[in-house]
């Protein structure tokens, strides 16, 4: 609009003041009162923008309180565009103030107290602002004590159940959203504003955002997963009580936060009594007995944690653009998604009801967790069909928090190229995940990155490779010779026995097994090799490992399910006796530490009763397997070979 134009026969435009995504703000003069007003004029007729202006008009007309810009009028121009007029405020936003420098402790407390008192009044009247941020706090005359809360376009009236948006509709700014807002939950209350104010106060005092990222998606994920540092870790002069209060305000669980703006204002008033950096906790800083805040999970000096993140989203060209991963009409699929994630011991989050985020973490070995995450991603791909999936792995080093932010940033980068037209079913993975998966999964690398294609049935029977490229076998020649000699003695000497190879995760146990099988087969002599690999996801499942070995080794026409009766042992012994009568049999059991006791017991029975038969067992396991299976195979365990760390010369060759 041009200077001098009159809107609705009342407001004369003086000059353009600011522009947003859907509206422009002009300084205008109210012809009735002569006062200056801020005239917000919509530039679109889109339903969300119309709804936002209507909500803001309702809120401002109701909230006649000092900390909020005074409502003047709302209506439509002659051309049909909606407008909202509020009192004109001279000053700068808190965002502009923070661009120059962070606030002092006293300034931060002054601002927080003013905003908390304003929010207390807003909450008492039943409203939730839903977008508290530095850009929506205007410092009248540049004075922190005269901060005004502006822009109620995202506000909600908590008493009106019909006003709540549908699941997945997000209002607010990602950097200051509470976790429940990031998930798109329909029920949002005053504690969302408390979280946002905590984020604002954190930024005021530290000069950095509590949750930052290169794009909205990464910020939303960090809001859900990342714990920001405590204030006193970044600024030593912050009073201990204030540090505890902000930590409570930023709690992921809304039950652990102060209940509303009034509770925060009361807490800050108590804080004013003790501003010493090392001051003891004032009364308000103690958590209530009914809602104790969750303890922050720290990484101690003796711990190393791994985190895997899976992100999935359906392509809009393959699914209805209005469909979401959480629609009640698709309740069966939502239940199936939850079952897959729970089976793989993961945690599921839904962002905007479209992005499915799965986190897996714990004290597991990195390779185990990566395999667990890959299995989960492949299962989700099977269920979701055309969804785009990406998987990344991150590791926390000694005495540090989980680097969730760094892992999330890598995940979002992968999402940008997570669909390859030449590999529509492939899952995009990062370099760390690809390196950890090893031979259990089929993965390739090209100019665009690393791709996961699927799991391999017979790991020890496949050529060892990393990202589709063959890898050399170095540094284990002595151990391979020892194992081969013992297996030879069992098969050629017709003296059933077992060899156990133990080593830490990644020490090369499976590779040694592959090299042994390859060497034995290269002789050209009759030999039946059955290979079974235990799975951490089904650890302990009765006869699971043995069934996998038989399914892998036998011709499909000869496969039969193991009988489930008291005659199982006799049937097994008769079966393996007949097989050994025809040719020597080598049973390879990989990852025995995840095996099931019934399998171990049946193998023990075969070793004891197959006298004079060419039968040998090669078991590969991690240290501690004897504690899981005490007295493992007794005198029939001919040798245990321990794999030490690779010697420096072997490492150089590798």
UniProtKB/TrEMBL annotation:
Identify the stretch(es) annotated as Disordered: 273-298
CDD domains, per the entry = STKc_PknB_like
Q: Does the keyword ATP-binding apply?
A: yes
Composition bias type Pro residues, residue spans: 279-293
Q: Name one Pfam family in it.
A: AAA_16
**Family matches, as PROSITE patterns:** PROTEIN_KINASE_DOM, PROTEIN_KINASE_ST
> What range(s) does the Protein kinase domain occupy?
11-273
Q: Which UniProt keywords apply?
A: ATP-binding, Kinase, Nucleotide-binding, Transferase
A single Gene Ontology MF term assigned here is: protein serine/threonine kinase activity
List the protein's name: Protein kinase
Organism, scientific name = Sorangium cellulosum (Polyangium cellulosum)
Q: What is the lineage of its organism?
A: Bacteria, Pseudomonadati, Myxococcota, Polyangia, Polyangiales
